[in-house]
Write a structure and sequence with these properties.
Layout (H helix, E strand, L loop, with lengths): L3 H36 L1 H17 L3
Helix pairs in contact: 1-2
């Protein structure tokens, strides 16, 4: 069995690193989406309309 006290600092560091990597990934994803929207405006508009329709028909 593992001792939770021994893993605690390492786990916190790993958690912080995971959040940093996730934030970086989301920034890059947003940047890639914006680039695609600029390069293919017609496809981007269609994707926006599809997303809006999906959100309108979504039920909580």
């Amino acid at each position: 069995m593992r001792n939770p006290e021994e893993e605690s600092p390492e786990q916190v560091e790993t958690d912080a690193e995971r959040r940093r990597r996730r934030a970086q990934f989301l920034r890059e994803l947003t940047e890639a989406r914006e680039l695609r929207d600029r390069v293919q405006p017609r496809r981007a508009k269609a994707a926006r309309l599809r997303h809006a329709m999906r959100m309108r028909t979504f039920r909580w």
